[in-house]
Amino acid sequence: MDGAGHRIEIDVGRGHRRRVGPAGRCQARLLATSAIHRDCAPACRRQGVPPRRTPMLASRMNISTLREDPSEAEIASHRLLMRAGFLHKSGSGLYLYAPLLKRVLDKVERIVAEEMAATGALEIVMPILQEQALWEASGRWAAYQASRTMLTVRDRGGMTFGLAPTAEEVVTDYASHVVKSHKQLPVTFFQQHTKFRDEIRPRFGLMRVKEFIMMDAYSFHASDESLDQTYQAMRAAYDRAFRRLGLEAFAVEADSGAIGGSGSHEFMVAADVGEDTIMFCPESGYAANVERATGTIPVAPAWESAPEAPLITHTPGVGTIEQVVGFLRAHGHPSLVASHLLKTVLFVAKTAAGSHSVAACVRGDRELNEVKLTNALTRLLTAEGPVLQLRPMQADEVRDATSAEPGFAGPVKGLKVAFCLADRTLQGRAPLATGANLTDHHILGFVLERDAAVPVAFDDLITIRPGDGCPKSGKPLQEKRGIEVGHVFKLGTKYSQAMKAEFTGADQKLHPFIMGCYGIGSSRVVAAAVEQHHDADGICWPTSIAPYQCVVVPTKTGDAAVEAAANQVYHELLAHGIEAILDDRDVKPGVKFKDWDLIGIPHRVVCGRGVAEGLVELKARRGVVENAPLAGAAAAIIARVRGASTPAA
RNA sequence: CGGGGCGUAGCUCAGCUUGGCUAGAGCGUUGCGUUCGGGACGCAAAGGUCGCAGGUUCAAAUCCUGUCGCCCCGACCA
Q: Does A587 lie in the same domain as A453?
């Protein structure tokens, strides 16, 4: 089979020169190329042979570049992937991967798979349709229905299925059937498959879509130490994979969200268009998603004019923090600042057992972090399972809970909520001002631990912001934006316990698996790579994931010497396993240059005016033009490609 | 789901306010010719149920009602 492939290539080379027909289209070329596609490439793929020798003529590649940006595309990756013809929108959040993108994605998946396999992980394929019963066994059906993340479908028999947003249930069920003994542990399974999430709002092209491709891995362990080892091995494998992918990615502490579990890190690619905010400390190396970040905040200056005892004060029409501060400063408290206020935000929290009203108190100058509140509530409500949904109270619910108009709530007499939490920075006996649960009134000189009319649980509830102290070094934290391209979780026994997935330990007793899970958004990696590697002319693919490594551009169609030179370089490259394109299109050179810059092929060989003197031009996508002798051109490109695709580890 | 915007040729958009000729332009596509180193030029051509449905009117891309879709800002996540 291999031999046949080679022979066909040579045929292409020979038939290539002869021109037939007035438009300069070459019949022999056409036939030979389609023969290759039919006979060689699929066969190679079937045998797992890398598609390295697939010859490619630009005239047969269905290149469809756009001169203008599609109106819907806002960020670079979306804009450029669309313009260069990598992507076609099929529906909102649904994309067709064009031939060029398929090649990029294949390379991403291949690198990820190699790094996973290098850790000893075993590749599998799981179904995308998952039975409701499995998800009920883990207890996640309700949560995913509540958040409406999972799209459900029904078959003709009336069975309900979910479209896989992730696969903990399926793989845990699998492990429980095939892993019986601690001697088989640890073991890690992974797959690279389509995931579906019913996104509230798909956006940014490939960045946030309903259907995407993700590598998801799941590890099973007999001990926490073993989980720790694999968790660290996975983090290291991610580092290697992202380096090979040409991405600058870094790990940050993260919230584990709906997946659950104890420890969790996200892998971020720094980008201004990223949807996540990261707090970090250059001093200590601390980095965390703002959903999760902790830190120290400056102590509020003393409020000197505070009353000794709680004092109900008429504050007509001032419901917001700014208004209250302004009013009180004008009425006898000129030194009062927002940090002297206690802000009470009211929520309704839903669990499997029902709904609860919740009051959350934070210092007036700080923002409440709803992720932290959700987690704090979940800890408080251990018996009821996790908080499935947290939403702010509507105005009429606020009136019911406080007997006052919105804007005057406080943890004082008249507050009717099931739970009251307060940020731990409010601990201590400093007097504050807070709503009086009475329209147009606040209470001044309020000391939370002395005067609260409801039981208060303290927890970390505020959103950390730049300038707050790093929890490790105490130095000011900084902020940046990132694209989440990967995530690692320690799941513990959350799923194995719920689903009774157990193995026999050395003690001859049954134990639930201790689990970890790990994901890399392969299709999002592609978008992130473009965000990180582009310029005004188009995409600049890292060589490791470029759809092709080199393009050979003859600038004079019809000039026999130029075409011969281009053919020679092209076939030399192919013969050495370089993924090369020959731009045989009968268009002006400028069109070719623009196209390849936009598409982002890393290396270019131009055969044109220098050919008469035996010279061609070499140019890296971001480099400058260099002249080289025709005879050494292919070798030079080969050296560049090889050098780039094996980065120092 | 709340707030904002948009649906007219493959793409980017004019036209709509103030209803009225055969619905336009640029890019792209096809043919012929001239060109040929950074998105050439000339000539010719194809391509539209103006998102869909209903209404008002002698007459609707244009006005009204409904509906569907898409995009942007906020709450979910790889």
A: no
